[in-house]
Design a protein that fits this description.
The protein is of the alpha/beta class. It contains twelve helices and ten strands. The longest helix has 20 residues.
Length: 354
């Protein structure tokens, strides 16, 4: 397997990153089976694993730690994330509130939570520590300062952002330079044939700053798994129950997404490859992308995805994809992974009287 530079960190990673979100209560609850899947990926040449503290409320990190025991840790670039609400049951509905200080991007939480992640992962260091989402109520200098201290202490090797708007990435780069702090060296955005909004602005920004890009959901949350085709029953999943706005077929944007997924499936059939391979290879082929994250729940899903690293799409196929979903197009705001308060809070757009 060919390896790629992770931004300008000097670390070399496989062209696919194994995402661990589906290991634990959110997906595969059997720890032994999850460990077998991770070992299968490592044996196939993947050396890059991404998880997060919030995935199954820490259970995913525990499983990854088990899988990397007995001498496997040194050969893996290990990434995790912080920001999400901790201290609530793993099966609680999305948005369940707990201690307001057991989340976010504050120094107080970062310093505390990195120790929890190190313990769960059973490791002495984290190769890439990522801010899972922006936090409008926290100054980015506060976050960068805490992360820089952790880097100097040797607890983390590098740090990055996830699902940040382009202007916040630029601000973070400016603050890091102005204040003499470490900077975000990677970004982890949503990107797929159905979610192409980042092509317009974010990917040019990451290229300008030499950042590694680790896209999540190259299968668009399952829409490009081959199961969303006309004439087939719509599949149900844990993810669709947790995030109904991304799958509700009564919404016009999801109907348009379904139509595009069906056309892309037909294109894959015409090209003689699986839609899964078409989808992952499309993301891999963008020059700004380092390694898309694949997130299998089962061994079968891993085996269906891992071969995409060997697929190269011809210009003719890429042109046809552009015809079905024009560059820069995203069908649904819900697929972006983050909606800023300026759009969700009406008072952010309305001048107060008096």
């Amino acid at each position: 397997m060919d390896y790629r530079s992770l931004g300008r960190t000097g670390m070399q990673v496989s062209p696919l990153c194994l995402g661990a979100m589906m290991f634990g209560a959110w997906g595969e609850p059997d720890h032994d089976e999850s460990v077998r899947i991770i070992h299968k990926a490592l044996d196939a040449g993947l050396n890059f694993i991404d998880t997060a503290d919030v995935y199954s409320q820490g259970e995913s990190e525990i499983i990854v730690g088990k899988a990397l025991a007995n001498g496997r840790r040194d050969d893996v670039i290990l990434a995790t994330k912080f920001h999400g609400q901790m201290g609530v049951p793993a099966d609680a509905p999305m948005g369940t509130k707990g201690d307001p200080n057991s989340q976010g991007n504050s120094r107080r939480w970062i310093i505390r939570e990195v120790e929890n992640s190190l313990r769960r992962l059973n490791t002495e260091w984290i190769d890439l520590y990522q801010v899972h989402r922006p936090s409008p109520d926290t100054d980015v200098e506060e976050t960068l300062s805490a992360l820089t201290d952790l880097q100097r202490q040797g607890k983390i090797r590098a740090f990055g952002s996830s699902t940040f708007p382009p202007h916040e990435i630029v601000e973070a780069q400016w603050v890091a330079e102005r204040r003499g702090l470490g900077r975000f060296v990677t970004e982890q955005p949503p990107y797929s044939m159905l979610v192409r909004g980042i092509e317009a602005d974010l990917l040019p920004v990451t290229e300008r700053y030499g950042m590694g890009v680790i896209p999540w959901s190259p299968l668009a949350g399952g829409w490009l798994s081959g199961k969303y085709r006309k004439g087939q029953d719509q599949p149900e999943s844990t993810r669709s129950r947790r995030l109904p706005q991304r799958y509700d077929m009564s919404l016009p944007e999801n109907q348009r997404k379904f139509d595009a997924a069906d056309k892309l499936g037909a294109l894959a059939d015409e090209a003689g490859i699986s839609l899964v391979h078409l989808a992952i290879a499309f993301v891999l082929q963008h020059p700004a992308v380092t390694a898309p994250i694949i997130g299998p729940r089962t061994m079968e899903q891993l085996e269906s995805q891992i071969g995409a690293a060997d697929v190269t799409l011809t210009p003719d196929i890429l042109d046809k994809i552009d015809e079905i979903v024009p560059p820069g197009t995203s069908f649904s705001r819900a697929d972006s992974g983050y909606v800023p308060p300026a759009l969700t809070d009406p008072f952010a757009r309305r001048r107060r009287a008096g």
